[in-house]
Amino acid sequence: MKTENVVYKSGENSFEGYLAQPEGESHPCILIAHTWSGRDAFVEEKANLLTQLGYAAFALDMYGDGKIGTSVEENQSMMQPLLDDREELSRRVLAALDAVTKIETIDSSKIVIMGYCFGGLVALDLARTGADIKGAVSFHGFLAGPENSSNEIKAKVLALHGQLDPMVGQDQIESFREEMTIKKVDWQLHVFGDAMHSFTNPEANDPDFGAVYSKNADARSWKIFTDLLSELF
Predict the structure, then answer these.
(1) Using an 8 Å Cβ cutoff, are 15 and 8 in contact?
(2) Domain ranges within the chain, ordered by starting residue
(3) CB count, 10 Å around CB of 40?
(4) Nearest of 16, 232, 214 to residue 137 by alpha carbon
(5) Could you tell me the fold of the domain covering 2-232?
């Protein structure tokens, strides 16, 4: 396995992604969009795990210069401007996609994006741009699309959601279902009945905040995700 940091640009801003890939050439690639805390060890570990399965993986950077938050307040301050400006959010994730497609050892015709929490929204919004990717996967992510989102979605879409997640209400579920159906997307929504927000993160243990790890939901959602990768590739 080879790993390196990759610097890329979006407009005047500089971003730093983490690339892990097997030896050899022409690998399918999984983009990984981080939570509100930034491109941290959690997504880098997911990149390494995917590389062990034979894929290249690129943990992208939505905040710039690989910045990682250290508090709830800082995380919120970094995430909120992108939630408020979905066009800028799309520009940044498209820049990451463009950077990956220029890497010689990556098969640019075989790209999937996955994301966690805020990153789940990033993954879905890349698909909403009409990008020519194979799949977009959201783990306990925000599901509502931006206003006036009319682009064709070419990717297969998978949303993995915790029924007890207080941050994603039934309104988001219904708007997601309606959007995917109207756009005639090949989509799936899997709901885990005992799971809250952040159910894939072993360090999540804050029931008052609504973020708690679930061993079962973590394992089951990963199996569903990797089954989709096998289907796509």
Answers:
(1) yes
(2) 2-232
(3) 15
(4) 232
(5) Rossmann fold (3.40.50)
Residue ranges of the chain with pLDDT lower than 70?
A: none
Which strand (E) or helix (H) includes residue 205? strand 205-206
- The H or E element that residue 139 is part of is strand 135-139
d(CA 27, CA 173): 34
Provide the 8-state DSSP code for 145: P
* Spatial distance between the Cα atoms of 49 and 55, rounded to a whole number of angstroms: 9
Tell which residue, 152, 148, 82, 84, has the closest CA to residue 115: 82
Q: Are 157 and 186 in contact (CB under 8 A)?
A: yes
Q: How far apart are CA 115 and CA 107, in angstroms?
A: 20
Q: Tell me the three state secondary structure of residue 74.
A: helix
Amino acid present at 187: W
User: Which residues 6+ apart lie within 8 Å of 218 measured at CB?
Assistant: 199, 200, 202
Please calculate the CA angle 80-86-88 and round it to the nearest 5 degrees: 90
How would you class 88 by CB atoms within 10 Å of its CB: exposed for 0-12, middle for 13-18, buried for 19 or more? Answer: middle
The per-residue pLDDT for range 18-61, each reduced to its tens digit, is: 999 999 889 999 999 999 999 999 999 999 999 999 999 999 99
Token pair 């079962």 is at which residue? 216
Q: pLDDT at position 54, please?
A: 95
Q: How many CB atoms lie within 10 A of CB 91?
A: 14
